[in-house]
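Something for you to look into today, if you have time. Could you write out one complete protein record for me, on any chain you like? Leave the record below and I will have a look.
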Amino acid sequence: MPAYRYGLLIKHILEHVLVRAPDKEIVYRDKVRYTYKGFYERVCKLASVLEEIGVKKGSKIGILDWDTHNYLEAYYAIPMMGAIMHTINLRLPPELILYTIRHAGDDFLMVRDEFLPLIERVKDKLVGVKGFIVASESKQVPETPLEPVYNLEEMMDKASPSYEFPDLPEDTDATIFYTTGTTGMPKGVIFTHRQIVLHTFAIALSLSGFYPSPVTITSRDVLMPLVPFFHVHSWGLPYAATLGGCKMVLLGRYDPGLALEMIAKEGVTFSHMVPSILHMIVNHPRVHEYRDALSRWKVVIGGAALPRGLAEQAMRLGIKVMAGYGLSETCPVLTLSVLKDYMAEWPDEKKLDVLIKTGIPAPLVKLRVVDNQMRDVPRDGKHMGEIVVRAPWCTREYYNDPERTEELWAGGWMHTGDVAVWDEEGYIQITGRAKFVIKSGGEWIPPLILENLLSLHPAVSEVAVVGVPSDKWGERPIAIVATKPEYRGKVTEEELRKHLEKAVEEGKILKWWIPEKFIFVEQIPKTTVGKIDRLKLMEEYKKIKLP
């Protein structure tokens, strides 16, 4: 008799916590609190409900929800029964939400009641959607012209708390979602059970304290995700936290004040987020009331560069920070800024130089920085090139888009579109997106380095550096600066220019990199996932006349 072939399946992540920590809690705001044992029973009930309404292996279920306990249950129930979870980006415009539903070919939609009006407006265009599963905290479904409609909690109350999840092939598709690219239509990326499990183990190892780092997560930590569940599996941390048996705290819709309250009330010790969320929290008017709780809080920043000024502001509140990097196409984690052994004894200021970098590759990630001939650029921290990668969890394709898939995997390496330098230790530092790096007089100017330096000025709250047309140089940089409230109207272009000239004297940048203009604004526009919307800024300021 042949040996049993053990597949890498999402269900095995959940099975482990039922032995390791069945009584640890999952908390959704002040509305729901249960143990992992109770969570598993609801996962089984959800699978029973989905099977009852006609969900089969390969069916696609699109989800429109905040970060709720219902969404977390779907993270497991849907792929574990062999169906495919489509995490829909709530922050896309309605026409693009409709596009992703139709392009993915969703069979059912699982919708929080407050999003029913959005779906009702496009119901006649939802060709192929067989039903709508409605989640509501009141357990009542509002009147709606959609049909058929299923009341999730009503059906869960009647469902069996046991379900026999199949032994699927590990290469079974588990999830699909769409990139929020700044150009063109959203692109679908698919991940299998095997990819998600391997990614879970890699980030668990990287963050477990196996490597020296002030930012670690263990079974005794309390995770509060601050990356939406619809965005790249919330960077895989809900899966990793379940594997480790961490208490989990879910915020639903994000609110900085509520985040601070939950950190204190529930003992939250670990979160992950984009820089704009950290910026909102550390600048909240009541943040100093939570100093004791924040002194236990560890944070991984990704999605955009971590400015040193923001990192220092967080550290002054006692928050421990570290950067990471990945893409929607890579599940997403590629690098984390963990320290090397000999760095563990460095003073905090010197460690921070490393912790805010893009990082070193996570286990099983092969990463290169290459020129346009696919040749590795020198590891000298100066020569720029594109990051290309291979990892077990890179998406195999853009769904139903062979032309862009071929571009993505040109030469057998996944092309990230990110421009970076790397040093002799193997640490990567992104200098910008290929399409956003400024080319002036035939030479490159990296906007992220300028933004990082400007963030250190005490008046600067947020900053974006973008290129605008120049008759003489092709492009020149300008800086769009949001100042802190107490500095509004008090800081000048000349003061910020002198701040950068000091960096020139210290050899950190070249003088011709200094922006031509500094434009002061109250806030900087963001994309749907909280990143600086550089395309919008470039469009807004492209008419500025520069010599």
User: Anything to note?
Assistant: Residues 36-53 form the longest helix (18 residues). The chain has a mean pLDDT of 94. The chain has three domains: 34-178, 190-433, 438-541.
